[in-house]
Design a protein that fits this description.
Elements (H helix, E strand, L loop, with lengths): L1 E3 L10 H4 L8 E5 L2 E5 L4 H17 L4 E5 L3 E5 L2 E3 L3 E5 L7 E2 L5 E5 L5 H5 L1 H9 L3 E6 L4 E7 L5 E8 L4 E3 L5 E3 L10
Parallel strand pairs: 5-8, 9-10
Antiparallel strand pairs: 1-3, 2-3, 4-7, 5-6, 7-9, 10-11, 11-12, 13-14
Length: about 190
C-alpha cells in the first residue's frame, strides 16, 4: 500500500482528484486528504469477499443493503473509503455512493494493507461513526470484531478463529465461521 499526503498541486487530495486516477486495478481511497493506494486484491481475498457478501445478503433485512467493493463511502470532500464489504440503510445510499457511515464496514487483509486496516482505517471508521468494523485475515483465517464501547470508542468485542462460529447481532443476526468463508480453499 502506498500513502501520499500531498497532491500534485501541493495541497491535500480531494475526492475530485480521485476522478483523475488511472483505471489500473488498484484501489484509491482518501482519509482526511491523504491518498491510500492498494494493489488489486488476491484470490483468497476475493473468495472471502464473495462468500461473506453472499452470507450477509442472505440474512439481510429488506431495509438494508450489502455491497462489495468498489463502492464509495464518501462523507466529505477529503474522505472516500471503499470497504471490501459494507452494510448500509436503503434510505442512506445513492446510485453513486454512500454519503454517510455504513452500519458495518469489513476489510479483508492483504500483506500490504494490514497495518492500515488495523490502524488508519480503523481510526477513520471510528471517527465516521461506523458501529461495527470487522477485519478478516485470510492467512490466519481469523475475524476480529470492533464495536463502540460505553466511551464511544472502538473496543474489540470478538476474536474468532477458523472453525469457531461467530454470531453477529449487529447490524443484523448472522452466523458463520471464518473458515467457511474460504469454501474449498481451506
Amino acid at each position: 500500500m502506498t500513502v501520499m499526503a500531498i497532491g500534485m498541486n501541493g495541497s491535500p487530495y480531494t475526492v475530485d482528484d480521485l476522478e483523475g486516477m488511472p483505471d489500473d486495478g488498484r484501489r484509491y481511497e482518501l482519509i482526511d486528504g491523504m491518498l491510500l493506494v492498494s494493489p488489486a486484491p488476491g484470490f483468497r481475498h476475493q473468495k472471502i469477499s464473495v462468500k461473506l457478501s453472499s452470507k450477509l445478503d442472505a440474512a439481510c433485512p429488506e431495509d438494508l443493503h450489502v455491497l462489495a467493493a468498489p463502492f464509495a463511502v464518501q462523507p466529505s470532500n477529503s474522505t472516500e473509503l471503499q470497504p471490501d464489504v459494507l452494510v448500509c440503510r436503503d434510505s442512506d445510499v445513492t446510485d453513486k455512493l454512500l454519503p454517510v457511515a455504513p452500519l458495518l464496514a469489513v476489510e479483508i487483509l492483504s500483506p500490504s494493507t494490514a497495518l492500515n486496516d488495523f490502524n488508519t482505517k480503523k481510526a477513520a471508521y471510528e471517527r465516521l461513526g461506523v458501529p461495527s468494523y470487522w477485519i478478516i485475515d485470510p492467512e490466519t483465517t481469523t475475524l476480529t470484531v470492533f464495536e463502540f464501547g460505553a466511551d464511544g470508542l472502538y473496543e474489540q468485542t470478538a476474536a474468532v478463529k477458523a472453525d469457531e462460529v461467530f454470531e453477529a447481532t449487529a447490524p443484523f443476526p448472522v452466523r458463520f465461521s471464518p473458515a467457511e468463508l474460504l469454501g474449498t480453499l481451506r
